Amino acid sequence: MKRPTFASLFVIGFLGLPAAGLAQGNSCLDCHKELDGALQAAAVAFAQDVHGQFGLSCRDCHGGNPATDDVDKAKDKSFKGAPKRERIPEFCGGCHADAAKMRGFNPSLRVDQLDQYWTSRHGQRLKAGDAKVAVCTDCHGAHGVQTARFPKSMTFPWNIPQTCGRCHADKALMASYLLPAGQLEDYRASVHARALFDKKDLSAPACNDCHGNHGAYPPEVGSVSGVCRQCHPSAGELFAKSPHKKAFVEIEAGECGACHGNHKIEAPTNALIGSTAGSACIQCHEAGSKAWTTAAELRSLLEEFESGTASAEVALDAADRKGVEVSEARFKLQDVHTILVSAKNLTHGLDLAEIRKAIVDGENALAEVEAAGQKALAEARFRRRGLVVATICLALLAAALALKIRRLKEKRMAS
Ligand code: HEC
Ligand code: HEC
Ligand code: HEC
Ligand code: HEC
Ligand code: HEC
Ligand code: HEC
Ligand code: HEC
Ligand code: HEC
Ligand code: HEC
Asked: From CA 210, how far away is CA 262, in angstroms rounded?
C-alpha cells in the first residue's frame, strides 16, 4: 500500500478530518520527503536502509512522534534530533552494543563493534576530542545503511578503498597528523587491487582485511606478518624458520613489508632477489657479506631455471603451431611450473640447500619435458617422411595416368 503523501496529509489536516490510518503512517518520512537538501536526503535514502527492512523507522533512532503531521508535536520531548559527530558511536551503539536488544532481530549479529571501535586509533582519537576521525556513519552512512553483503554498500569489498580513501587520500587532512596519504593510490597499483577489481576475486584483501573493520589500527610490527599469513601461510611458515625472523624483530622491520611493501605490493619477479639494483636484499646487506653472496647465488639459480622453463615453453609453442602433437610434453611442463613456484616460495626460508634440491628436481622434470618434446618432433618427422614418399608415389601415378591418357587420345586420333 502506498503511504499517504505530505500533500494528502496536508489536505486531511486542512479539512479537519480525523487522521484515519495516520497511526500506522510515518509523518517523519512523509514530511521530510517534501523538504529539500539534507532534510530530504535522509528520507529518500531510507528506502534502501537495512534498518527500514527490519521494520525500524526514524523514531527508533531519533525519537519523536511519527503519528502527527504537526512539526512541533512530532518533535516532542522524546525527540533526540540528529546526534553530533562525537556522539555517533554511542548513538549507534545504543542498539548495536545491546545484546538483548539485538537478539530479537538477529541473534547471530556481533555486538562488539562499539567495544572494538574504542580500541582503534579512530576511537582513541575521538575520545581525546578529535572529531575528524572516522565514526560509524563515515563507513556505513546514516540513512541508506546496508550490510556488507550488498554490492552497493559502502562496506562491500570493492567500495571499501573509496570509503577509507575519502579521508586517507586527503593530503591536507593527513598532513595535519603527519601521516602519508598515498595508501589508496599505492593499493590501487597492487596485485591485490588487480585481483579484487579486475578478476573480481573477493578473496583478495581490501583495506579492512589487513586493518580490521572496527579495531582499525595498523598492525604492530610483529603482527604484520600475521595478517599476510592468514592468506599466504606457506611464505609465513618459511619466514618464521628463517634467520630473518629474529633479526627483523630486532631491527623493527615489517616481516613481509620490508621486501614487498605494505600497500603497493606487486607480483614479485626474480629482480626482487639478488645483488643488483631493484633487489630488496641490498637495502640491508653489504656487498661481499655472506647474505649478499647467498642472495646473488639464489638469483642466478632461479634465473637459470626460469629461463630454461621459458625456452621449453617457446619450443613447445613453435612445435604446436607446426601441428606437432605436444600435449604430453605440455603436461610435464606443468610439473616444472609447480616446482618453479615452490622454489620461489622457498626463498622465504633462506635455506640454500633446500632451494638447490628443489631446483635439481626442477631440472630433472625439465629434462623429461625436453625428452617428450624430442619424441614428438621425431614422430612428426617420421610422419612427414612418410608423407613425402606418398606424395612422390602419387605424382608418379598421376604422370603415368597422363601419359596413358595421351596415348589413348593419340590412338583414337590415328584410328
Ligand atoms: C539507524 C539510525 C537512524 C535512522 C533509522 C534514521 N536516522 Fe536520521 N540520522 C541518524 C544519524 C546518526 C544522523 C546524524 C549523522 C549525519 O548527519 O550524517 C542523522 C541525521 C538526520 C538528519 C539531519 C541531516 C543533516 O545533515 O542535517 C535528518 C533530517 C534525519 N536524520 C532524518 C531522518 C528521517 C526522516 C528518518 C526516517 C526516514 C531517519 N532520519 C532515520 C540516524 C538515523
Ligand atoms: C511536518 C513536517 C515535519 C515532520 C512531521 C517531521 N519533521 Fe523533522 N524536520 C522538519 C523541518 C522543517 C526540519 C528543519 C527545521 C528544524 O530543525 O526544526 C526538521 C528537522 C529534523 C531533524 C534535524 C534537525 C535536528 O533537530 O537535529 C531531524 C533529525 C528530524 N527532523 C527528524 C524527524 C523525525 C524523527 C520526525 C518524526 C518523529 C520528524 N522529523 C517529523 C519537518 C518535519
Ligand atoms: C534502534 C536500534 C538501532 C540503532 C540505533 C542502530 N541500529 Fe543498526 N541495526 C539494527 C538492527 C535491528 C539491524 C538489523 C540486524 C541485521 O542486519 O541482521 C541493524 C543492522 C545494521 C547493519 C547491518 C548489519 C549486517 O551486516 O547485517 C549495519 C551496518 C548497521 N546496523 C549500522 C548502524 C549504524 C552505523 C548505526 C548508527 C548510525 C546504527 N546501525 C544504529 C538496530 C539499530
Ligand atoms: C573505519 C570504518 C568503520 C567504522 C568507523 C565502523 N565500521 Fe562497522 N563495519 C565496517 C566494515 C568494513 C564492516 C564490514 C565487515 C565485513 O566485510 O563483513 C563493518 C561491519 C559492521 C556491522 C556488521 C556486523 C559486523 O561486525 O561485521 C555492524 C553491525 C557495524 N559494522 C556497526 C558499526 C557501528 C555501530 C560502528 C560505530 C561504533 C561502526 N560499525 C563503525 C567499517 C566500519
Ligand atoms: C572520516 C575520515 C576517516 C575515514 C573514513 C577513515 N579514517 Fe582512518 N583515520 C582518520 C584520521 C583523521 C586518522 C588519524 C588519527 C591518528 O593517527 O592520529 C586515522 C587513522 C587511521 C589509522 C592509524 C594510522 C596511524 O598510524 O596513526 C589507520 C590504520 C586507519 N585510520 C585506517 C582506516 C581504514 C582501514 C579506514 C576504512 C575502513 C579508515 N581508516 C577510514 C580518518 C578516517
Ligand atoms: C595487504 C594488507 C594491507 C592493505 C590491503 C592495506 N594496508 Fe594499510 N598498512 C598495512 C601495513 C602492513 C601497514 C604498516 C603497519 C606498521 O608499520 O605497523 C599499513 C599502514 C597503514 C597506515 C599507517 C600509515 C602508513 O602508511 O604506514 C594507514 C593510514 C593505512 N595503512 C591505511 C590503509 C588504507 C586506507 C588502505 C586501503 C586503501 C590500506 N591501508 C590497505 C597493510 C595493509
Ligand atoms: C585476505 C587475504 C590476503 C591478505 C590479508 C594478503 N594477501 Fe596477498 N594475495 C591475496 C590474493 C587472493 C592474491 C592473488 C592475486 C592474484 O594473483 O590473483 C595475493 C597476491 C599476493 C602477492 C603476489 C603473488 C604472486 O604470485 O604474484 C604477493 C607478493 C602478496 N600477495 C603479498 C602479501 C603481503 C606482503 C601481505 C601482507 C601485507 C598480503 N599479501 C596480504 C590475498 C591476501
Ligand atoms: C630489512 C633488512 C633486510 C632485508 C631487506 C634483507 N635482509 Fe637478510 N638479514 C637481515 C639481518 C638484520 C640479518 C641478520 C644479520 C646478518 O646476518 O646480517 C639477515 C640475515 C640474512 C641471512 C643469513 C646470513 C648468515 O650469516 O647466516 C641471509 C642468507 C639473508 N639475510 C639473505 C637475504 C636475502 C636473500 C634478502 C633479499 C631477498 C635479504 N636477506 C633481505 C636484514 C635484511
Ligand atoms: C627478504 C625479503 C622477503 C621477505 C621478508 C618476504 N618476501 Fe615474499 N618474496 C620475496 C622474493 C625474493 C620472492 C620471489 C621473487 C621471485 O623470484 O619471483 C617472494 C615471493 C613471494 C610471493 C609469491 C611467490 C609465493 O611464495 O607464492 C608471495 C605470495 C610472498 N612472497 C609473500 C610474502 C609474505 C606473506 C611474507 C611475510 C611472511 C613475505 N613474502 C616476506 C622476498 C621476500
From this structure: 10
Segment 70-105, tens digit of pLDDT: 999 999 999 999 999 999 999 999 999 999 999 999
- d(CA 210, CA 228) in angstroms, rounded, equals 8
CB of 136 sitting under 6 A from ligand 5: no
Is residue 2 packed enough to be buried (19+ CB in 10 Å), middle (13-18) or exposed (0-12)?
A: exposed
pLDDT of 186-220, one tens digit each?
A: 999 999 999 999 999 999 999 999 998 998 666 66
Q: Which atom of ligand 7 is nearest to the CA of 267?
A: 27
> Helix 233-241 vs helix 221-231: angle between axes, to the nearest 10 degrees?
140
Mutate to test the pocket of ligand 8, among 285, 286, 346 (most ligand atoms within 8 A of CB): 285
Burial 159-186 (b: 16+ CB within 10 A, else e): bbbebbbebbbeeeebeeeeeebebbee
Which stretches of 265-351 are DSSP H helices?
290-321, 327-346
Distance, CA of 281 to CA of 291 (rounded, Å): 8
Torsion of CA 226, 228, 232, 236, to 10 degrees: -50
User: Which residues contact residue 286 at a Cβ distance below 8 angstroms, ignoring those fewer than 6 apart?
Assistant: 292
Exposure on the CB side of residue 112, measured as CA atoms within 13 A: 9
Ligand 7 close to Cβ of residue 267 (< 6 A)? yes
Quote the DSSP letter at residue 159: G
Phi, psi of 357 (to 5 degrees): -65, -45
**Unique residue bearing C-alpha cell 603527519:** 178
d(CA 56, CA 105): 10
**C-alpha distance across the termini of the chain, in Å:** 106
pLDDT tens digits along 373-412: 888 888 888 888 888 888 888 898 888 888 888 888 888 7
Q: How long is the chain?
A: 415
